[in-house]
């Protein structure tokens, strides 16, 4: 009879642990998914901002006999532009390249209908994402204009402001949802742990009544919480990266290739899983350690 009772208790304990692990894994899967979305959204936001270019123009009025000297000056100016703090990437566009681009955009194939080298040479500049901020774009343009040899700087500031504001709004929504999922993770994991500890409330109180210290009673529960939290986090991460790998293969894009960010995301998910599980275990166990025996029947 005793053996059947022990077997029953072991099965119930195993079932309880499995339920807790699955709950933790599901919650951390959703939390990790929001983290992946946030990382990739930030990267693609920066990528889009870098496509908003500024054009810096050289002087188009010079004598043909000075072309060698002018080419040397433009090369020096281009190097100075590349070293500016706001500049992410700079591309030199010669007069002939500008003419070819103009022909292409206007659909003109014949050189006879299009005068050669009527456009000035220029530098196409992609700014660093932080300088696309409307509060810093003027500072970046002033720095570019101050470079000797640059006579004019043009950019579509209205487009930049609109794109920046829209991207910032999207990122704020994603960040908001991520925080919401973090709160839900805390609540759901805490509820699962409380139910598990609730089923052991009589064991906790019995150990206390026979003289066991609170630290001694807490220790096995904390160790178990760390193990359950780590297992749940690992299962959640395996499911997360499995789904993400399938998704990126289906759309043909690898998204962010920064392994360091994925590494920090993994640590965050594991840390959150263990921390919430341990904290919930301590709070739930401490509650029964402070309660009276009669309260155990009505908790």
TrEMBL record:
Keywords: Cell cycle, Cell division, Cell inner membrane, Cell membrane, Membrane, Transmembrane, Transmembrane helix. Pfam families: FtsX, FtsX_ECD. Gene3D superfamilies: 3.30.70.3040. The chain crosses the membrane at residues 20-39, 170-193, 221-247, 262-289. GO terms for cellular component: plasma membrane. Its main location: membrane. GO terms for biological process: cell division. Residues 177-292 form the ABC3 transporter permease C-terminal domain. The keyword Cell inner membrane applies. The keyword Cell division applies. Residues 54-153 form the FtsX extracellular domain. It is a multi-pass membrane protein. InterPro entries: ABC3_permease_C (IPR003838), FtsX (IPR004513), FtsX_ECD (IPR040690). It is found in: Cell inner membrane; Cell membrane. Belongs to the ABC-4 integral membrane protein family. FtsX subfamily. This is Cell division protein FtsX. It comes from Chryseobacterium flavum.
